[in-house]
Specification:
There is one protein chain. By secondary structure, the protein is α+β, with helices and mostly antiparallel strands. It has one domain: Immunoglobulin-like. 22% of the residues lie in helices and 34% in strands. The protein has helices at 2-22, 61-68, 90-95; strands spanning 30-35, 38-43, 46-47, 74-78, 83-88, 97-101, 104-105, 115-119, 131-137, 145-153. A hairpin with a 2-residue loop joins β6 and β7.
């Protein structure tokens, strides 16, 4: 009797284990953004684990739009003249990446290091709702991954 119960329990645990493993997804690489005393880390909204460029349908502008419309986008308050730092996982640096504000790349060539910093020059240009900071992995026009953060004016902070 106890052997039958043990077998049923073992089979049940095996089935639960299979479903648990099937539900796991490999995490994408992460990116951190820091300004002043605020920092945030996010996993890629989309990432090519195969190394092949993502198609526009897979990782398109609508992903950015949906992210900015209230999904899990970290807000980074910034002040004029403060340094904004971007730190990427090594796999992102190996692929090359571009920091992008709005639709403008901040560099002409892809960044291949794990850290990049810049100063946002004029806080007057940032709408109260903020502006998107995108980290786009890839070279040229190819996209291998995408992260989105929101730069917002730091009101009343000196």
């Amino acid at each position: 009797m106890f052997q039958g119960v043990r077998r049923v329990a073992a089979v049940g645990l095996a089935v639960v284990g299979i479903f648990t493993l099937a539900g796991c997804e490999k995490p994408g690489p992460g990116v951190s953004v820091v300004s002043g005393s605020t920092s945030a880390w996010r996993e890629a909204l989309c990432w090519s684990f195969s190394g092949e460029p993502l198609s526009p349908e897979t990782c398109a502008q609508d992903v950015v739009t949906n992210a900015m419309d209230g999904a899990d986008v970290a807000q980074i308050p910034i002040l004029p003249g403060n340094v904004i730092g971007i730190s990427v996982d090594p796999v992102v640096a190996d692929a090359g990446w571009y920091p992008v504000i709005g639709s403008q790349r901040l560099t002409q060539q892809p960044v291949t290091s794990t850290y990049f910093r810049f100063t946002y020059p004029d806080l007057q240009e940032i709408p109260e709702a903020g502006v998107a900071l995108q980290v786009v992995a890839g070279q040229g026009e190819e996209t291998l991954g995408l992260w989105v953060f929101q730069l917002v004016p730091a009101m009343g902070v000196e």
